Predict the 3D structure of the following.
Amino acid sequence: MTTKEIIAEVARQQGMTPSEVEKEMKEAIREAMASPDPHAQELWRQIAPDGKEPTLDHFLTVVAAMVRKRMGS
């Protein structure tokens, strides 16, 4: 499933537009990246080692890979 398809599906399920979903996801990423929690910061170093805000595509790809790894797939 592509990032565009994921966003469209979330939008459909939440009664939102894809643009609204993208905006909220980007805001959530910014807030999470600013967390002072050491565990959160370690996760962000794995997701965005350069410290820059990742694209939604990169974020979803990396997080999906992390989930698959944890699930043993």
The chain has a mean pLDDT of 94. The two ends are 17 Å apart (CA to CA).
